[in-house]
């Protein structure tokens, strides 16, 4: 689904005119990884899984969901719209977020 998000948003005659702040009240982006860190443990130990997932994956999905239509499909135009979006995000208070963290600890 994520791979086709730009096509679905900007190339679909049904979604394009209705995918805007007047018609969408909220968006929930959920991330669930059904597998472990197999082979990636060293990377996550050094940089952290939250930093990797939040910075690289979830913010990219947020950008594709919320950005304005780029002028063209040129990567510079797409990047400019993503940057514009991120520059205009108003931070929310941490108490309004839900961070369910499930951990298994072997003792």
From TrEMBL:
- Look up the record and name the pathway of this protein: Carbohydrate degradation; pentose phosphate pathway
A molecular function (GO) term: glucose-6-phosphate dehydrogenase activity
GO cellular-component terms in the record? cytosol
Broadest EC class assigned to this enzyme: oxidoreductase
> Which Pfam families does the record associate with it?
G6PD_C
> Keywords for this entry?
Carbohydrate metabolism, NADP, Oxidoreductase
**Protein name, as recorded:** glucose-6-phosphate dehydrogenase (NADP(+))
The species is Diaphorina citri
Lineage start: Eukaryota, Metazoa, Ecdysozoa, Arthropoda, Hexapoda
